[in-house]
UniProtKB/TrEMBL annotation:
The lineage of its organism: Bacteria, Pseudomonadati, Pseudomonadota, Gammaproteobacteria, Alteromonadales. Pfam families: Ribonuc_L-PSP. This is RidA family protein. Belongs to the RutC family. It comes from Pseudobowmanella zhangzhouensis. PROSITE patterns: UPF0076. Signal peptide: none annotated.
Length: 128
């Protein structure tokens, strides 16, 4: 099975030794996205809702660069520094996904890169 690297300037560049996504066959493994604006590589704001929207926009750009959409995601992992924002994530996520929704985990963590409040990664299955 061949492996290819997915990259787009419409999402933040990798800030470490990783790729934005890796495609193996029809499956795309999306690296975690934090709320960096792609053009400046700066945090969008300190507001949790704005950070969440930026993360979904970043994921959307990487999905599209791979030939898919957010709705092709089969697994989503959401990491938050404050799980009390869970309802807000659900509300925002409902604007980006339609049923059937992907499998999902929501995990509380002590800290995320660059002081982000949220990070999301996942797995995308491209249409045949």
């Amino acid at each position: 099975m061949s492996k290819s690297i997915i990259h787009t300037d419409q999402a933040p560049a990798a800030i470490g030794t990783y790729s934005q996504a890796v495609k193996a066959g029809n499956t795309v493994y999306l690296s975690g996205q934090i709320p960096l604006k792609p053009d400046t590589m700066e945090m969008v704001s300190d507001d949790f809702s704005e950070q969440t929207v930026q993360v979904f926009e970043n994921l959307k750009a990487v999905c599209e660069a791979s030939g898919g959409t957010l709705n092709d995601m089969v697994k989503v992992n959401i990491f938050m520094t404050d799980l009390s924002h869970f309802a807000k994530v659900n509300e925002i996520m409902s604007g980006y996904f339609r049923e059937p929704y992907p499998a999902r985990a929501a995990i509380g963590v002590a800290q995320l890169p660059r002081g982000a409040q949220i990070e999301i990664d996942g797995i995308l299955r491209l249409p045949e």
